[in-house]
Amino acid sequence: MDIGIGLPNSVPGTTGGQLLDWARRADAAGFSSLATIGCVSFPGYEELTVFAAAGAVTQRIRFMPNVLLAPTRSSAELAKQAASVDQLTGGRLTLAVAPGWRAADYQLTGRDFDHRGRRLDSS
Q1: 3-state secondary structure of 45
Q2: Residue 13, SS3 per DSSP
Q3: Is the distance from CB of 92 to CB of 31 less than 8 angstroms?
Q4: Tens digit of pLDDT for each residue in 16-28?
Q5: Mean of pLDDT values over 59-79
Q6: Exposure of 35 by Cβ count < 10 A (0-12 exposed, 13-18 middle, 19+ buried)?
Q7: 3-class secondary structure, 51
Q8: Which residue among 33, 58, 102, 104 has the highest number of C-beta atoms inside a 10 angstrom radius?
Q9: For residue 91, is pLDDT > 90?
Q10: Pick the CATH number of 4-122 from 3.20.20.30, 3.40.50.1400, 3.40.50.300, 3.10.490.10
C-alpha cells in the first residue's frame, strides 16, 4: 500500500527550511508521495517551486499537487514549469490539474472565473 503525506506549504509561518526538513523526513520515513495545496489566494509557497526544492533534498518520494489550478496560469508556462520539475526530480512529479472553485484565485491572476472550465479544456 502507498501512503502519501501533505506538505505544509500553505500553513502560515512555515519556513522554507521547515518545508525541506519535512520533505527529507517524509522521504526517510517511507511515505510514497508529498502533496500540496495550491490555491493562489492562500498564503504560502507555490507548489511547483516547493517540489523543485524538495526534489533536491530527497531521493525517491514522489510529488503531487492535490489540485493545481491550471486555468489560473499560462498553459505554455505551466507546461514548462511542470516539465522542469519532473526532470529536476528524476521523473517524480505527478501533475493533477483542475479548474478550482474559488473566484479569488482568478481575480488575483486576472483570469476569467466564469470560463475556467473551457480554458482548462483548451489547455
Answers
A1: coil
A2: coil
A3: no
A4: 999 999 999 999 9
A5: 91
A6: buried
A7: helix
A8: 58
A9: yes
A10: 3.20.20.30
What span, in angstroms and rounded, lies between the C-alpha atoms of 72 and 63? 20
Look at 3-17, 39-53, 78-92, 101-115 and tell me which has the smallest mean pLDDT: 101-115
Taking CA atoms, 71 is separated from 21, 32, 39, 50, in Å, by: 31, 28, 12, 20
For 54-103, the DSSP string reads HHHH-SS-EEEEEEEEGGGS-HHHHHHHHHHHHHHTTS-B---EE--S-H
Hey, what's the cell of 87? 526532470
pLDDT at 118 over 90: no
User: 3-state DSSP call for residue 12?
Assistant: coil
Q: Which helix (DSSP H) or strand (DSSP E) does residue 116 occupy? A: helix 116-122
DSSP 8-state secondary structure symbol assigned to residue 46: -
Question: Could you report the per-residue pLDDT of 36-54, keeping only the tens digit for each?
Answer: 988 888 889 999 999 999 9
Strand partners, 34: 5, 63
